[in-house]
Design a protein that fits this description.
about 35% helix; binds ligand DP6; single chain; alpha+beta; Ribosomal Protein S5, domain 2; 9 helices; Alpha-Beta Plaits; eight-stranded mixed β-sheet
Length: about 350
């Protein structure tokens, strides 16, 4: 598919008003997207596990306007309250996607959105939020063009979500999602995420992700700024090359269920992401002392017990603990005994691999 394939020529139906509701999950990258070109094109391909519990629910009520607007017409409720400060992000999103959704200026949209995870938990809601909104908008387009095939629907939803936030394109469909062109991954593209196209061993199909909330406040540097700092970064070229190779390694790891190699790739990716932050100009650190304490504890636990608990990080201080379902009991005991002490107010979220977004 090319970008121009997402520009509709005309619609077969007209609608005065309607209401749509979608829920979309968050995702956690195993191979990280960090660095992008213009138009939300990633500098390297990435792959993520789709989460199940951490979700956004978005309702969109749309009403036809008497005439097209020059500005976009919408209001926004976040967790039941008007949030003027969130509106510029939606406006930027609308501007980026209006070519692909020409009906955007013909309606007023009431957007009502809420997250399953605690407010300001440090968990990025842009992936689940943009994915849920993109799906609601695609559903409106499908009502205007009911002949649309579902394969196109999901690809375009992911394409639109990417224009809202890169990682959001991995929150539409599939348990493991690959985004970004890679010469050895069939069907991969920079334009949207695809369900992982190769064999995945059973052990990964019920993988657990417990998120330790180490720091719940606002991050000191946003992901968007971080991506930008990869331009002219002294290690950028090697980093993009490494991500490319890690995706090749993961293909065998997924197929064979090789957990030791999985751990090596995933932890190395997490630490490299943060190494990029520490070596950009200006440099910055998003990990907290407790992030490091948790990592040391995990390494100690693994050495002592031979279990397969590992960690990954996103662009923040929180730690995602990844482990197979059949090690859940011992890992959960370890979390309670040793790791909760490092969480802000003892808070953590038990999540696991999920299927993707759903219409409600
Ligand atoms: C570290 O998708 O939040 O979580 O495209 O600027 O919205 P924008 O960035 P975003 O970046 C995510 C970065 C990451 C790694 C990842 O999810 O792959």
């Amino acid at each position: 598919m090319l970008e121009k394939d997402f520009i509709p020529s005309s619609y077969t139906y007209d609608k005065e008003k309607g209401r749509i509701q979608y829920t979309a999950p968050s995702n956690i990258a195993l191979v990280k997207y960090w660095g992008k070109k213009s138009n939300q094109i990633p500098a390297n391909a990435s792959v993520s596990l789709t989460l199940d519990e951490c979700r956004t629910v978005t309702t969109v009520v749309y009403t036809k306007l008497a005439k097209d607007t020059t500005d976009f017409s919408f209001d926004l409720l976040f967790e039941g309250k008007p949030r003027e400060d969130f509106k510029p992000k939606i406006e930027t999103f609308f501007r980026r996607i209006e070519n692909y959704l020409p009906f955007l200026r013909k309606y007023h949209f009431s957007i009502d959105t809420s997250n399953s995870f605690p407010h300001s938990s440090g968990i990025a809601s842009s992936a689940s939020g943009m994915a849920a909104l993109a799906l609601c908008l695609m559903d409106i387009e499908k009502q205007l063009a009911p002949e649309m095939e579902m394969d196109y629907f999901y690809k375009k939803a992911s394409f639109l979500a990417r224009l809202g936030s890169g990682s959001a394109c991995r929150s539409i469909k599939g348990t493991i999602v690959q985004w970004g062109e890679h010469n050895e991954i069939k069907g991969s593209t920079n334009l949207y995420g695809i369900p992982y196209p190769y064999t995945v061993a059973d052990v990964f199909k019920s993988y657990q992700d417990t998120i330790l909330l180490v720091h719940k406040g606002q991050k000191s540097v946003s992901s968007t700024v971080g991506h930008d700092l990869m331009h002219g970064h002294p290690f950028a070229k090697n980093r993009f090359h490494q991500a490319h190779n890690n995706l090749i390694r993961l293909r065998d790891i997924f197929a064979e269920g090789n957990l030791d190699d999985f751990i090596e790739v995933v932890e190395s990716e997490a630490l490299t992401l943060h190494a990029m932050m520490m070596t950009s100009i200006p440099y910055f650190i998003l990990m907290k002392p407790n992030t490091l304490s948790i990592i040391e504890k995990i390494w100690g636990f693994r050495k002592e017990t031979g279990n397969h608990l590992c960690f990954t990080l996103d662009a923040g201080a929180n730690v995602h603990l990844l482990y197979p379902d059949n090690e859940k009991n011992i890992v959960n005991q370890f979390i309670k005994d040793e790791l909760i002490a490092y969480c802000e107010n003892g808070q953590y979220i038990c999540d696991r691999i999920g299927e993707g977004a759903k219409k409600l």
